[in-house]
Amino acid sequence: MDEQGGVPRVDDFSYTAQGNTWRDLEWLYQRWVMDLWSLGGATAVIVAHALVNVLTFGFLLWALGGRRRMTLVGVGLLVLALLVCEVRFSVRPHAVGRFFFAVTLWLILYPRARGRPVPLWPLGVIMVVWCNVHGSYTAGILLSLFLLLDAVMERTGWQRAILLLGLLLAASCMNPYGWQQNFGLFMHHGAVRQASANPEWQPLAITPDTLADPGLWAFVILAVLTSWLVWGKRGRSMGWFERAVWLMCLFAPFVHVRTLPLSAIALTLLSAVVLLGEREKPAGIPGVAIALVGVLLLSTNLYWTWAPRSSRLGTGVSEQSVGWGAGKFLAEREGVERVFNTYAAGGWLMWWLYPRGGRVYIDGRDIGNVYTAKNFAEYLELLTQPALFTRAQDKYNWDAVVLEPGNPLCQPLVQHLS
After folding, report:
1. Is the pLDDT of residue 318 over 90?
2. Quick check: helix, strand or coil at residue 301?
3. Of 51, 218, 281, 370, whose CB neighbour count within 10 A is largest?
């Protein structure tokens, strides 16, 4: 962005999608991360993401009543939401998206529970920032559609619901790409569904691995508790909007598994509205309570060393991080211009090699935004069919190959090249 004097519009980081249209939905987040890196390196970036997650769950704690009015059910809900989200905490824009989603949903739920109109301008301001940070802003537009459904079914308040929907749609166009970003995001979801081997975009599947995930069981318990509250005696005041959100939370993970954290946050806030009952507002949060949430989050050890489930404490980027060690190694060598690499390794390889003229085969940017479903299909074929990889070597003339030995998808090619 600094070199071009603006946000990127075409890809220049890969050789397979070079020149393709690239709508960088996360440009503002990337600007923040770069500024943080300039100030304090990986330490500043990691700590900032940890604090955003602490802020998000501190907000949930406040919504549930704070320490002084927190019931045992409220404590259980907060712990369950933490368990669902904990394994998905990472240094990614999703952390900021979760915070904006929580605040947006609460700004709708709380006034409705008190019989007041939903505030328009705070939601519009949030959307202007959110749509330049992460694609999860579409969840905010979906909430406004649910509100319109509620107004139509109740035959009241539909004018304000239409106004809110129009405001959020207009605000979501306040990005460098205008309305084309929303259209492109819709097309992106269609392309991702074609690239069915990308685990991040898969529906929640019931397998031995997922059944061993404590976060999944925490979500199931959270869903049961919330259903009991929303449909029980204390939840009789719940309207069409609340029940639409409840239904969305139950079914969204079966469309995309990465929606689990947003669903857990929404279920927690739905429960918070019921638990608050007739109180005018949630209690304040003592410093001890927010500190407790912070300790719970930071003690997961997912932040301090930038690597999945590292056993070492300490800030910085671990050599175990996919692509970091390989990128550093290749950057010290001359003539590395084209690399065949795994999807997960692409980001760090770009970090190291792009300034030196190197380009990657693929990276974690969106399928359907930068890369096509055809690009991703070829990537999978090259990983799993060594004979095709050998023929593709003549086409691409790779200078290096970066694989993940522990990734089952890479095993055929690892064995072929060993």
Report:
1. no
2. coil
3. 370
